[in-house]
Amino acid sequence: MEKVIAALWAKPGEDRATFNARLRAALPQALQAAGASKVRLNLRDAEVEPAAALVQRWQDPQQDAVVQFWLPSANAVFRADVDAALAAHCARFALWLVAESTIIANTAHAPAPGARTWGWSQASFISFRPDLDRQAAIAVWHSHHTRVAIDTQANFEYVQNLVVRPLTEGAPGYDAFVEECFPAEAMTNPQAFYDAVGDEAKFQANLTTMMDSCGRFIDFSRIDIIPTSQYDC
């Protein structure tokens, strides 16, 4: 089995509420009929509007939704029905083959099929610093930063997806996709995000540690950070 990350862009003039409703109503079933499993939607909806200040942008226009799913094979020769299903539901899409690593499984607020997962999900498309070779960047990410992200944040789900290769022509050159779930309060309260509610000293320490660690391997000029609502289907 292979995992695929899809970024979707809405049709010109289509508002996100309409786009999201269309995706929820039909896309998971269409993908499953085409052979996909473990379909997850990450939607930019009204529920995460309070987190708008947390958006970081590289792509213009930025992707409107993310879809995650698994296939027996992501090779193009076997993917035609999946690509057709995606094309029928958006203006354009980009795909990446990824290697998933579940750092924190969501056991605290386990997803229910078809329902919005508690809290919210930060969907992060990241690129490595150009002055680091790929293996050096991965070493920092996996051997140092992973522990920092666990220790300094209030994330109750944390999944790393290392990009193996892009699957579609013109896909942005990301190196990884990361999904982290947080309590709703973390959308607007930085202390809640950094697991330091009511403790300014801890908040400042966690923030500094996290930002310093990110700076060791991430190219901040080539990232897209998107607050989303998570739906497992």
- Shape, please? globular
The strand line-up of the biggest sheet is 1-3-2-8-5-7-6-4
Order of helices and strands: EHEEHEEHEEHHE
Low-pLDDT regions: none
Proportion of strand residues: 25-35%
What's the end-to-end separation, in Å? 18 Å
Structural class: alpha+beta
Q: DSSP helix count?
A: 5
Strand segment tally? 8
**Helicity range of the residues?**
25-40%
Mean pLDDT across all amino acids:
98
Largest sheet, strands/sense/barrel: 8 strands, antiparallel, barrel
Rg calculated over all Cα atoms: 17 Å
Task: Report on this structure.
The protein is α+β, with helices and mostly antiparallel strands and 233 residues long. It is built from five helices and eight strands, in the order βαββαββαββααβ. The protein has helices at 16-33, 80-87, 134-152, 190-193, 200-215, and strands at residues 2-9, 37-43, 65-71, 92-104, 120-126, 157-166, 176-182, 224-232. It has an eight-stranded antiparallel β-barrel. Helix 3 (134-152) packs antiparallel against helix 5 (200-215). The model has no long low-confidence stretch (mean pLDDT 98).
